[in-house]
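User: If you would, consider this record:
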Amino acid sequence: MTALDELTRPAGDDDVVGGVPARLVAAPRDTAEASALLAATQDLTVVIRGAGTKLDWGPPPRALDLIIDTRHLAGVVEHAAGDLITIVRAGTPLGSLDLGEQLLALDGPAGATVGGTVATATSGPRRLHYGGVRDLLIGITVVRADGKVAKAGGKVVKNVAGYDLGKLYTGSYGTLGLITECAFRLHPRPQHALFVRAVAPPAEAARIRAAAIAPTAVEIDSATGELAVLIEGTPDGVRERADLLAKLLNADISDKSPEWWGADPWAPGGIGVKLSVPLSAVPTLAAGPDAVRGSAGTGVLYAAAAGITEVERLRAACVRLGGHAVVLTAPPDVRDILDMWGPTPGLPLMRRIKDQFDPGHRFAPGRFVGGI
């Protein structure tokens, strides 16, 4: 019996990606099984599925023979507390990680897996202080399209050998191969946290930075006009900084985040757009006709669009401000006629990388920039 026969099952009614049904599903239990599976399926197109929280992001695949489900690739391989490092399997839900007095400072939707977070480069409010996926990922294990296993980086922060491989796979949307394990930089878990909340313009973020408050996150929601700042640290230090900021903004202090904090502004099945602009342009973007939500500290915001006209307006506004806009998710009738990624500098280089890592274009064909 071949690895294909042993590890796959016929796809069910729910084994669909972007409206495209799969023929087979496999759930390897470790890197070795994943390697054997991919080596035995050289003629099959593949989409990788974690918890499915972002499976509707991006265009549908041009073809889909096999879904590789990472649910069995779960658990902590190692936690080197003294080095502030952990190695985690890709199918591990972020919310299940219990690292004691340390934390992996990645935000994601409920149930999101480590591999899916890396593959989509998802970073939430705390990115301002802790950095994004590319900053926290220091090592990676992947299975290439030919079934060979590749590793880069290591569990020591100063060991950056092969770190570019981690950067390539971060945000690649599963188009270069299967991520099976990730090594991350950790941080001490804060003892205390408070939110300073005010109805204030986004321009106040500049005053927050000037006040040396050292916030963990500075988020805005233009629909409500609210600005919220997360402050973390020791109880006394957090209270002192929160009081200072509350006086500066004439704001309230709470131990609870706003309901909109870290939540997508679009409804299920709607059009969701990611907007990236320079910090100085955030107030201008937030003052526009479309409600935006996200980080006034990093310039990464999100918006719901009612249709293609709004998408194009948002995209044009971002370009004028020196940024760009990407449609993360959209219903089929919009997705089929809209360039979800928009203009992408460096596309020829991305194509060459795809050809090198996945010569047969097996992995998530058509899901990435330029139809890669």
Observations:
- DSSP finds twelve helices and 21 strands in the chain.
- The CA atoms of residues 277 and 322 lie 6 Å apart.
- The two ends are 34 Å apart (CA to CA).
- Confidence is low (pLDDT under 50) at residues 156-163.
